[in-house]
Design brief:
This protein is about 75% helix and about 0% strand. The chain is built from 13 helices and no strands. By secondary structure, it is mostly helical. The radius of gyration is 19 Å and the shape is elongated. It has helices at about 1-10, 20-35, 40-50, 55, 60-70, 85-115, 125-135, 135-160, 160-170, 175-185, 190-205, 215-230, 235-240.
């Protein structure tokens, strides 16, 4: 994490805006999809946006790569990911993460309907009363969190290493995702701690009103890059 903080402080604080873009894009997309019915699903939407975090952080992986190589790493290089030889593979992994986000929203709707019915809450207060004051509300939160955990583990397993790897080397989406899953399997304690760290920092960064993500997302992006460089044998990749 120290290396990540050094990256963040190294003339790239002007990129904090990128940490604010992706949660609002996700919320806007959910609002368009769900309309005025978004209130009961506000927490699932906010939590589900974290599934897209690795994709949003690809620009930070590029900046960390350039800094490591001794190259210029100004703010404009954040968008160099569009010129990366592996951009199509990155798009494939990104599409899978977006599909997981959509599937999580569908699952959240089904879970809410199963426990709370199809009627819209009369008010935010009535919704909170039903959520915390009824057995169905507590059951819904328990089931929803367990299902959400499953989505989070899957997204983490396929993207934790694959996206920084693709920024670094054009190895293909399939091999990169397999390498990511294998890295998680071989380093369960390290990856579990890192996954929990991400979850805690994203929750902290979401308060208030996602403003903290302006710092959290860049730092997590840089930290993920450094995790990748420590977990993966990059010399072996270069020989492929």
């Amino acid at each position: 994490m120290r290396d990540a903080l050094d990256d963040f402080r190294s003339k790239r604080g002007d990129l904090i805006f990128a940490g604010l873009i992706y949660p609002f894009v996700g919320l806007a997309a959910a609002w368009l999809a769900l309309g005025n019915d978004i209130l009961p699903l506000l927490f699932p939407v906010a939590a589900g946006i974290s599934l897209l975090g690795p994709l949003a952080a690809t620009g930070f992986y590029e900046l960390a790569r350039r800094r490591e190589a001794g190259l210029e790493a100004g703010w404009r290089h954040f968008f160099d990911i569009a010129k990366n030889p592996a951009r199509d593979s990155i798009a494939v992994v990104g599409t899978i993460l977006i599909a997981l986000f959509g599937a999580w929203l569908v699952a959240a709707v089904l879970i809410y309907t199963a426990f709370m019915g199809t009627a819209d809450p009369a008010s935010p207060g009535a919704f909170l009363s039903a959520l915390f004051g009824t057995a169905n509300g507590w059951a819904m939160m328990i089931v929803g969190n367990l299902v959400g955990l499953g989505f989070a583990i899957l997204a983490f397993a396929i993207s934790a290493i694959s996206l920084p790897m693709l920024v670094d080397r054009d190895v293909g989406a399939g091999p990169a995702m397999r390498a990511s899953i294998e890295a998680v399997r071989r380093n369960p304690m390290v990856m579990t701690r890192w996954g929990l760290t991400i979850a805690v920092l994203l929750v902290v960064g979401s308060l208030p009103f996602f403003l903290g993500l302006a710092v959290v997302l860049p730092v997590l992006g840089y930290a993920t890059w450094h995790l990748y460089t420590r977990v993966v044998d990059r010399e072996a990749l270069a020989a492929v």
